[in-house]
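Q: Could you fold this chain for me?
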Amino acid sequence: MQPRRQQPLRSIGITAFLALVLGFMGSLNSVAAQGTPEAAADMGNCVEALGIGAEGDACINVVHASPDAPAVDVYLDGAVALEGLEFGSISGWVPVPAGEHQVQVTPTGEDADAAVIDAMVTLEAGAAYHVAATGLVAEIAPAIYQVDLSMLDPEMARIGVLHTAPDAPAVDVAVTGGDVLVENLEFPNASGYLVVPAASYDLEVRPTGTEDVALALPGVALEAGMVYDVFAIGLLEDGSLNVLVVPSPTVPGEATPAA
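A: Sure. Below is the predicted structure, expressed as structure tokens.
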């Protein structure tokens, strides 16, 4: 795997993050007949969906989500695969031969024996994974999330939310003026995927266990044919809480939504 340059954080703010969360979850209730939770049996073929690699490869995207960690280098099986990845950045999708691999994360410029993360990962052929460095640096840990790139019906989108902001509180997600759809979503949990019609949704976020409206979020738009993995990153305490949105196509050449 060749070194890749990092891609910068898409800084759309916590309001937009919550809007995406709510848009995703709210459709469970408000369009229940159209949006349905997905079974995880078929996660698609990343080589075909992303148009990279060769038959038998897996695909990975490295996410730097540790808010107080320095820029890092990533080693794959003892060789440098990525250099200088900063907090809030991603590597972009790269193909990797399927099988078991050693992934090590070091402060930039350090040798592999200085790794703050040293993990063995098993990658299945055709599967796509986000490999994230999560938590504060004193407790930094790897998190691996498989991405569902299976084909979507026309005019549908898929979205999942990953809570990787270590000091952010739990929230409830509700339909505007309606029922709670997701309760007590906490770090470091991830939601399941949901397939919904490509459309706009009106929702709201509430502090867990209350009916107070923290944010009213009308008109959240999702594009057809795309998978959205929405990472909450940063820290609430210092105001760095933000969002990293990783859109991926389910069909090669699918347009990526504009930032």
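A (continued): The chain has two helices and 17 strands.
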